[in-house]
Amino acid sequence: MNFLRRRLSDSSFVANLPNGYMMDLQRPDSSMSSPVSPAMERKHPQPLQPPHSSSTGTSIFSSISSAMKQTTQAAAGLIDHSASPTPPAAQKPKILLVIDDAHTDWAKYFQGKKVNGEFDLRVEQAEFSELNLAAYVMGGCMVDMQVMRNGTKVVRSFKPDFVLIRQHAYSMALGEDFRSLIIGLQYGGIHTVNSLYSIYNFCSKPWVFSQLIKIFNSLGPEKFPLVEQTFFPSHKQMITTPNFPVVVKLGHAHAGMGKVKVDNQHDFRDMASIVAMAKTYATTEPFIDSKYDIRIQKIGSNYKAYMRTSISGNWKANTGSAMLEQIAMTERYRLWADACAEMFGGLDICAVKAVHSKDGKDYIIEVMDSSMPLIGEHVEEDRQLIADLVVSKMTQLASTAGSTPSPLRPWPPQAQPTSMKSQTGPQLGQLSQPRPPPQGGPRQPQGSQPPRTNAPPQQRLSPQGQQPQSPQSTSPQQQRSPGSPQQVRSATGSSPVQASKAGVFPPQQPRPPAQGRAPSQPSPTETSKQQATPHPHLNKSQSLTNTFSISESSQRGNANEDEAKAETIRNLRKSFASLFSD
């Protein structure tokens, strides 16, 4: 510090500074200068005058010291930047893509909502047939949208942050296979409701029914009454069925399409020929003379149950005229919805369809995902529930985006150096601090070592079970300096490497020459490199702890303080060099 004070008080040092540095410090005091207006001062800048008084040099030193302190604190992250208010930057709005038909305007249900309380929400709505996309590994997913709005074609390109899927991604009807878009969204890492994994699995109804079979086997027929269904991968297996009438379902279809009621064997054979022409799979299930249909829907944590009774007399209750009413939500229905909501990693929106027969039995026939149609007089409420669910998912995603490590940028292993240091370096609080073994040295078998924490240095023995590869009990390398407390050794000889592990060599004695090494020891060149690896001050401090008495600890402390001061001076010199480099 005295060196800096003398250096900054030197007039030649300040005079050699570049123009523009410390202008306010090089000017004379305001009390000694004549009053000049700011305009005149800007027109006639005062020439640089080297300071001659010690007070000016002291002020320069104080200013530079405070500036260096602030720079050091800023580098260490100790300065609270919240004290200086900065104007808040405009947050980029989050883009939500809603895949649904134009009959529902989803923008009004998200109006005024914010993601995580700070991000505005921009809603884009289109159908699957109006979308195209390109997905990249690092660039995410770019969606192209071409829609008709009031007779005007609207073309937009954007990167969605979240997607709400309210349409079926696949149907066997012509031109309704949009599974490639689901793959593209998954490829781009886009989060959706429901998840893209579940939506892709729902593109095959027999595949979904196989999950219902698992739930049926887990809960039993009393808690989860599942209809008995038979799967045929092609028409070749459709020879006969044990009971009639049956309902034949062709492939993957929705809203009552692809379902035929077959009453006898002849009609069943005719139906098999239709399956052959369709080149798809088929399922059959016994026809149930139903009294009404049951639908249990789950949106987030909201449950509703409906009963639908056909008025037109059609065996399909969802076809023709039907009467719909809301019924009480029982624990039995809640169990159905909760069990189905756990499939494919979890369904945020789902619905279970069942048939109540005239003999009073229930049969679960199907489960639907987020593309389920909303029914009843609470449609607006259900849409608002879906909007709130999407906003909560987006908020959760925004709040946890920085705390989850990315697969491309994993967290750095910060805890590994600490653990390695605790294994190989000296342990704090121990009386004996052995020097770590040199890198690349011969590996000795690790045996059980007695704890040396409470043992005094005079009684420390070599570790048991570590025998040298070539025993040299009479080697001259075992000589120690006189007066060292480490005089006691075991009867069995040990190699020099083991002696260095146990900390028997004092700091003032150099490493013994590599004579009489075992065949597995490194070459002299490698040994010389390994000897230069440990820090000399570290080994010296460790050995002083083992050899010197307690009365000499104050001298070691003074040496450490001088070392810290020297390090501080070096850091300040580097900071001044970088400050005045330009």
* Number of helical stretches of at least 4 residues: 16
- Give the averaged pLDDT, no decimals: 73
What is the percentage of strand-forming residues? 15-25%
Structural class: alpha+beta
Give helix % range: 25-40%
Strand order of the largest sheet: 2-3-1-7-8
- Name the shape in a single word: elongated
- First-residue to last-residue Cα separation: 24 Å
- Count of DSSP E strands? 17
Report the major sheet. 5 strands, mixed
Radius of gyration: 41 Å
Poorly predicted sequence stretches spanning 5 or more consecutive residues: 24-54, 404-434, 440-510, 512-554
Quickly describe the structure.
The protein is of the alpha+beta class. Helices cover 32% and strands 18% of the residues. A hairpin with a 3-residue loop joins strand 4 (131-136) and strand 5 (140-149).
Folded structure, characterized:
The chain is of the alpha+beta class and 582 residues long. The protein has 16 helices and 17 strands. It has helices at residues 2-9, 11-15, 23-26, 38-43, 54-76, 179-187, 196-201, 205-219, 265-278, 331-340, 379-399, 415-424, 496-502, 524-531, 536-547, 553-579, and strands spanning 94-99, 114-115, 119-126, 131-136, 140-149, 152-158, 162-165, 191-193, 230-232, 246-250, 259-262, 282-286, 290-299, 302-310, 322-327, 349-357, 362-368. Strands 2-3-1-7-8 form a 5-stranded mixed β-sheet. It has a 5-stranded antiparallel β-sheet with strand order 15-14-13-16-17. A 4-stranded antiparallel β-sheet has the order 9-12-10-11, with helices on one face. Helix 1 (2-9) packs across helix 5 (54-76). It is elongated, with a radius of gyration of 41 Å. The protein starts with a helix and ends with a helix. Mean pLDDT is 73; it is low at 24-54, 404-434, 440-510 and 512-554.
